[in-house]
Design brief:
globular, two-stranded antiparallel sheet, 5 helices, alpha+beta, eight-stranded mixed sheet, about 200 residues
Length: about 200
């Protein structure tokens, strides 16, 4: 019987199909350079910016993090598997980067602002790494941001209204230090692949 634990595998396929379509529109249908593990999305008309609030109450946009490789992941704190796995992989990747870890910023954007309060995000996200930031907006801002990143999500009700789940596409967006969206890493690529691609972005590839 099909489970609803994030439904990320089902939704990931939809997200990747959308990104592939964008390559055709943008003329970005080239294969990813062999050295990258993730998919090259350089030039795709998506993920251009956001305006959200971090778990410390500060308004954030992408320009705040120029000079660093930025990893953006959408999820929610009650996610039972995909979200904590991805954040854990990113935390392990930063350990592998050693002194270069300080040149990376991980951003977790919640798709569940109804439950993911700033206080909860401040507990959940930095538990994986103290430098990770949780970002949130109201329902309308969340929807607008997800649309900009071509992220699909849908609330699945539960007999207990407080225990609903959210089906969502999964994957991590990686920006180079100039603030350009460069890569889309599918869920499950692991810490070593993240570390490999982040090193290349830091080297100017």
């Amino acid at each position: 019987m099909e489970t609803r634990q994030c439904m990320a595998w089902k939704w990931r396929g939809w997200g990747l199909a959308l990104i592939a379509a964008l390559f055709v529109v943008a003329g970005c249908g080239k294969q990813a350079p062999a050295e990258f593990k993730a998919t090259n999305v350089t030039g795709a008309p998506m993920g251009r910016d956001f305006r959200l609030t971090d778990h410390d109450g500060k308004t954030r946009t992408l320009s705040d993090f120029k000079g660093k490789v930025v990893a953006v992941f959408f999820g929610y704190t009650h996610c039972p598997d995909v979200c904590p796995t991805t954040l854990g992989d990113l935390a392990q990747a930063l350990k592998k980067l050693g002194d270069n870890a300080g040149k990376v910023q991980v951003l977790f954007i919640t798709l569940d602002p109804e439950r993911d309060t700033p206080e909860l995000l401040a507990q959940f996200v930095p538990a994986f790494n103290p430098g990770f930031l949780g970002l949130y907006g109201d329902a309308a801002t969340t929807a607008k941001t997800a649309e900009e990143f071509k992220v699909i999500y849908h609330k699945q009700p539960d007999p207990d209204p407080a225990k609903y789940t959210i089906d969502h596409s999964s994957g991590t967006f990686l920006y180079d230090p100039t603030g350009r969206l460069r890569l889309f890493a599918s869920h499950g690529q692991g810490a070593e692949a993240f570390a490999h691609d982040i090193r290349l972005l830091l080297e100017g590839n």
